[in-house]
Structure to design on (227 residues):
């Protein structure tokens, strides 16, 4: 029996998943909103590359948000089923967790760059923001205002609407913008994190999604203590 790790990001479009045995890693992606129709055929094709079966999946790490409500539920449901019916070791991390880990462990990030800010598209001109321990759904205007007042060094990761780079939308004299490869989730990074977390998180932590409330229901970034 092979020991394979399934890596899944269904939090946004395109749907992405990968399978690794610790040496080789195969990945697949599919655009479209009906992710529930694409997921199992994608996994089946990845299993074929290893000449393996579903029972050979030993662990699974999935992205628990923020992002599309339905997509996040797909990841939670699949992981729950794998754990319950096949004894698969599961774990979950947010997009923020993974991008921050990538940045901190990259050669591009230096301590003098200071805090890491992560910006992700939410809806229209609204964004998911992770900064100084806060994770909120906020507006483009609020982020721009926050960056104008920034006095300390800053390292910005993420992407904007229509896959624009953050620097194409926001300006900040104190900021260093991450290179493109640090702005998207890497399945190689997820494979590394799967070894660290699968089977070691409590089930409540794993299955608690990170949805975040729309900006109109959130306090402003400043009111939440981001200065």
């Amino acid at each position: 029996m092979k020991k394979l790790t399934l890596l899944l990001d269904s939090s946004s479009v395109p749907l992405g998943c990968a399978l690794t045995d610790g040496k080789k890693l195969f990945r697949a992606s599919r655009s479209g909103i009906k992710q529930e129709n694409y997921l199992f055929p994608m996994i089946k094709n990845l299993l074929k590359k290893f000449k393996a079966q579903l029972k050979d999946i030993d662990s699974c790490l999935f992205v628990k948000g923020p992002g599309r409500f339905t997509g996040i539920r797909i990841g939670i449901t699949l992981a729950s089923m794998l754990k319950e019916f096949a004894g698969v070791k599961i774990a979950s991390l947010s997009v923020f967790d993974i991008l921050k880990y990538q940045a901190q462990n990259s050669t591009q990030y230096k301590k003098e760059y200071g805090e890491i800010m992560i910006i992700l598209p939410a809806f229209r001109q609204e964004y998911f923001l992770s900064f100084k321990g806060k994770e909120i759904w906020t507006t483009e205007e609020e982020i721009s205002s926050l960056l104008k007042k920034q006095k300390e060094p800053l390292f910005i990761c993420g992407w904007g609407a229509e896959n624009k780079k953050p620097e194409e939308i926001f300006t900040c004299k104190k900021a260093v913008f991450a290179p493109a490869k640090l702005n998207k989730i890497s399945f190689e990074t997820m494979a590394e994190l799967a070894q660290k977390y699968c089977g070691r998180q409590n089930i409540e932590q794993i299955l608690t999604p990170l949805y975040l409330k729309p900006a109109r229901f959130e306090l402003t970034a400043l009111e939440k203590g981001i200065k």
Remarks:
- The chain has a mean pLDDT of 93.
